[in-house]
Amino acid sequence: MENELKIGEYNRLRIIKEVPFGLYLDGYEDEILLPLQYVPETYEIDGYIDVFIYRDSEDRIIATTLKPLATINQFAFLEVKQVSPIGVFLEWGLMKDLLVPFSQQLEKMSVGKSYLVYVYLDPQTDRIVASARIDKFLPNPKDIEEFTIGQKVQALPFEYTNLGIKCLVNNCKIGQLFKNEIFTNVKLGEVIDVYIYNIREDDKLDLRLEAIGLERIDSQKDKLLSLLDEQNGILYLHDKSPAEEIYEQLGMSKKDFKKAVGGLYKSKRIKLGEGCIIKL
């Protein structure tokens, strides 16, 4: 609704008056304080300002120009700062940390470790809280666009498992990167581009770091030829080169490198030297 204050979100509010300890903003039903430390250098009475609205440690509605790492109805990968009798508190970029009640934890959450959580407004307390029970906040599959094999998507890696790394895909599905498909350093909490390799019966996704199919190998051949051109026609890589070295130079897995080299060799585009590849 218009002209309604939205807690846990950004609001554009009118500046009513200046006081020694900050500015008062029009919160429609009440005046809301923007504390002095968050007041911008320039402003005008009756002008407008964009602020984030939340409740402070004394449960008062308050404004800030700081930007939290997530607003309500968003997923975020956040670090635990403190364990308390009511739950754990996460660092999310504001003076007041974000609570995950014990009832919203899947496992015991530890200080210094980061977790994927969903930020929401508790309808009972009207407070912003977070939950690590991700599955219950994922949208109904009927309400999202259907995925396809080979589709490029964005993934947020958030948990190491025995199989590999669990990811949140496009903020709406859970996917898995398998150990044998991870050939570079994947950091938890950093969004990456991945490709859908399989859509399972449980509606979860199997993921790969590279595109699948013949199209991928053709692109890897082109990439290899381009690098050979840049290196005056000779590249000091071969089938015994470490996978890390291949990825660092070419941005491809060792398996794809060997396929690309084999294809180019058969088509007489390259020849194999002693510990190197030479363009013909």
TrEMBL record:
Q: Which residues form the Conserved virulence factor B-like winged helix domain?
A: 222-277
Q: What is this protein's name?
A: GntR family transcriptional regulator
Give residue ranges for domain Conserved virulence factor B first S1.
7-65
Give the family per the record.
Answer: Belongs to the CvfB family.
Organism the protein comes from: Aquirufa rosea
